[in-house]
Amino acid sequence: xxxxxxxxxxxxxxxxxxxxxxxxxxxxxxxxxxxxxxxxxxxxxxxxxxxxxxxxxxxxxxxxxxxxxxxxxxxxxxxxxxxxxxxxxxxxxxxxxxxxxxxxxxxxxxxxxxxxxxxxxxxxxxxxxxxxxxxxxxxxxxxxxxxxxxxxxxxxxxxxxxxxxxxxxxxxxxxxxxxxxxxxxxxxxxxxxxxxxxxxxxxxxxxxxxxxxxxxxxxxxxxxxxxxxxxxxxxxxxxxxxxxxxxxxxxxxxxxxxxxxxxxxxxxxxxxxxxxxxxxxxxxxxxxxxxxxxxxxxxxxxxxxxxx
Length: 308
Description:
The chain is α+β, with helices and mostly antiparallel strands. The protein has 9 helices and 10 strands. The protein has helices at 72-79, 82-89, 104-118, 123-126, 163-174, 203-209, 239-246, 249-260, 298-307, and strands at residues 15-22, 49-56, 62-69, 131-135, 146-155, 182-183, 186-187, 192-200, 223-230, 268-278. The protein has an 8-stranded antiparallel β-barrel with strand order 1-3-2-10-5-9-8-4. A two-stranded antiparallel sheet has the order 6-7. Helix 2 (82-89) packs antiparallel against helix 3 (104-118). The radius of gyration is 24 Å and the shape is globular. The two termini are 34 Å apart.
């Protein structure tokens, strides 16, 4: 029986997760044990998802494993499986796993590994490593890859009836916003934008924005809208131009002025720059069924031998 070739499929409007981890500069991709045929995705080999790797521009050893899942249920099933613990174990949060046992991050990492490996029904701990995003719109969008500026906007309340209004107000400002980027003494940036709501917050969100107090009766929760601004792959704008412009006070001021136009409902914002590329998928050679081989008649084989 011929072996079916496994290829990466696209799930353009699925659920997206970001898992941040430390990846040394001398290591191009994360890897898992060689027992897996596809060492770059390992526990995800048989999952319905596509995978990318991001590196933070200002700190390239800060990486992110970016997964597009077909459905939210696919993600939840993975998080509640033993494969999730194995997946996270090879994506360390810290520069070194040899951190002090008194460290809160070390205790959290150990608790996550121990709990996830001993129980298949507790995805809540592992969810702190998965920033979970959902597309705002169902219309086709560009893939989030290449040089990307990621901006998160905090709205300090939850209200499903108001979410569309909030998005439209922020989109009206930033959908046509051209941040100042110096290119050959000219300013401008023809770019594409992709918008996401945060479905599940991770530790990064808690660090940057804090987490609502779950025990306070007057707590209104919080909503986070994310914009991914994609650099063009052609034209006179290059990553080097953005690198130079990122330290330009005028550029930061142009962003701050735009954010001021969406306050309220926005009360805080964070911004990062990432380089994102697809993770290569290893496809093992197909096994050929001997019965499917073309059998040549003896006289054909004899004729070829005489020609040689």
